[in-house]
Amino acid sequence: MRGRADDGWWGVVIDAPEPVALATFYARVLGWQVVGDDPDHAVVAAPSGVAYLAVQRNADYVAPVWPPEPGRQQMMLHLDVEVVELDEAVADAVRLGARVADQQPQASVRVLLDPAGHPFCLYRDG
């Protein structure tokens, strides 16, 4: 089976209790655009037009914990976002509603929690 990533859209879908609010958050963090904002399913599109982040409503959503703890909801995936100025990017994300996680793995990476509790990383390469 051949995928369509080379000539079509590809993306990631995450669950949250409020899809439009979380999609708006990520649109602002990433500098992308909300292109679909149904109350149960919202989509944020990359400027390139080939990648997206979608958020679907899950009334039973349970936020994962970071760092992982036995017996608690585990993170299934996380987003990595490369930034030029790490401290500035972290401050912007916090202003938009993110929280800085208590545990940080390395000097050039900051783990944050989005408004729904999903961990995501801002990092500076090199």
From TrEMBL:
Q: Please state the span of the N-terminal signal peptide per the UniProt entry.
A: none
Classification via InterPro entries: Glyas_Bleomycin-R_OHBP_Dase, Glyoxalase_6, VOC_core
Alphabetically sorted, this entry's keywords are: Dioxygenase, Lyase, Oxidoreductase
- Give all residue intervals belonging to the VOC domain: 8-125
PROSITE patterns the UniProt entry points to:
VOC (PS51819)
List the SUPFAM superfamilies hit by this protein, alphabetically: Glyoxalase/Bleomycin resistance protein/Dihydroxybiphenyl dioxygenase (SSF54593)
Q: Which GO terms describe its molecular function?
A: dioxygenase activity; lyase activity
Q: Which PANTHER family match?
A: CONSERVED PROTEIN, HYPOTHETICAL FUSION PROTEIN
Q: What is this protein called?
A: Catechol 2,3-dioxygenase-like lactoylglutathione lyase family enzyme
Annotated source species = Cellulomonas hominis
